[in-house]
Amino acid sequence: MITLEPYQLVDASFSPWRPIYLDVAQTLSEHISTPRIEVLHFGSTSAKVGGKGIIDLSILYRSGERDDAVAHLYALGFQDQHSDQPFPEHRPRKDASVIYQDERFLVHAHVIEKDSDEHHRQIAYKQYLLDNPGVRAEYENEKRAILAQGVRDQDVYVKHKAPFVKGVLANL
Q1: CA dist list (Å): 129 to 42, 49, 51, 135
Q2: Cα-based angle 17, 136, 110 (whole degrees, multiple of 5)
Q3: pLDDT tens, position by position, for the chain (172 residues)?
């Protein structure tokens, strides 16, 4: 059994990729999944890319069942997104942290309609990164360069790395 705890906003930083990210995501996926909700681990921790070490999950709901998926996340202990510019209500993100093997991991749960364009882009992006170690290394270098500029706020950090992500997505 896994217990979700309140999210703890921390400064952006860089940590090398570790296999434990896959274990945490798998345990969370099993905890969150229901017969009507699937979970996809995506983002850097899913694609063996170093970075902030935040576990990004897509909470994939069936058409018309977004509110049920959000209610499920709240019941498990997720909270509203910790951001000055949160995702819109039609595509919410909920946040939590979890202790796994005596270590705290931050979790971002992105509530996304199953089989939507965004769902398919996440799958393609993850697979592209897994298939291209050179691109993963380039992405890590981009992240380190952003931090070297003194960027520590998570929202600002995400905005700075967005052009790299959009560039990769444009080529998929």
Answers
A1: 11, 8, 14, 6
A2: 70
A3: 688 999 998 999 999 999 999 999 999 999 999 999 999 999 999 999 999 999 999 999 999 999 999 999 999 999 999 887 888 888 999 999 999 999 999 999 999 999 999 999 999 999 999 999 999 999 999 999 999 999 999 889 999 999 999 999 998 8
Q: How far apart are CA 126 and CA 160, in angstroms?
A: 20
- Match 């979700």 to its residue by tokens: 4
Strands 103-113 and 93-100: antiparallel
Comparing CA positions, the residue from 11, 20, 8, 6 lying closest to residue 101 is 20
Residues 6+ apart with CB under 8 A from 139: 44, 49, 129, 161, 164, 168
Distance in angstroms (rounded) separating the CA atoms of residues 35 and 50: 32
One-letter amino acid of 22: L
